[in-house]
Amino acid sequence: MNIIKRELKANLKSIIGWSIFLVLFIAMGMQKYEALQGTNAEEFLKIMDVLPDAIKAVFGMNVLDITSIIGYYSVLYLYLILIISIHAVFIGTNIINKEEVDKTAEFLFLKPMTRHSVVNYKLIASLINLVILNLVSLISSIIILIYLENNVELLNIFLLHIGMFITQVLFLSISAFISLSTYKNNKLTLLSTSILLSTFFLSMIIDAFPEINVLRFLTPFKYFDAKEIVVNQGLNIYYVVFLILVSYLLIHVGKLNYKKRDLNI
Known about the structure:
- By secondary structure, this protein is an all-alpha fold.
- The chain has one domain (2-260).
- It has helices at residues 2-10, 12-37, 41-49, 53-58, 69-101, 105-108, 115-148, 154-181, 188-208, 226-232, 237-260.
- The longest helix is centred in the middle third of the chain and has 34 residues, at 115-148.
């Protein structure tokens, strides 16, 4: 329990900074929607119509009505889930890497507890950080959207953030797996971030070129696509179960690898 408190205290400034950034990002993004409502929406749609079909598909403008508040928010969500997933990568990378870089791993593991227990406590603290940031995003989104328009479909907002949280957990698991399995401390963040950005850009390429839609299973950003969630008003339960299982396996194998390797002290 002391490890959880220590981790939460160590990440306090970071979570405050990320929270402020998210609130500002959502507020500034939705401010453009307010400006859109103040202009002639038909004129705006005529401008959008001249865009290539591939570009409109990437941002969901071929499916969603971006002159509606939930449609506009779904476009913003594309970047929101990317930002919050980057945070998950940083948290997962530092689960053990921080102790080895700061040379505190030896002191930590002199305590009367197993490596398995230490990693579990750190994972709990990491999940708490993810929940906090997700709730900040959810609550600020609801407040800002209701401020802009009273008739907001809150169910869609909740569903989007459930999908976002599962995506957060997946990238936490990927980066934690890498951190627990390798000594290359200086390469961990680069590798984890590369995986994140590669899957993100793959999702955009799939949107632009539907003929390669078969590759959607390679990117978690397509598992909880805002367009599909809003249109269908639901999450695909198979995707939910699959990503939870993948996350569990990554953490389980990562802990087994960490148990076998020497500490980098």
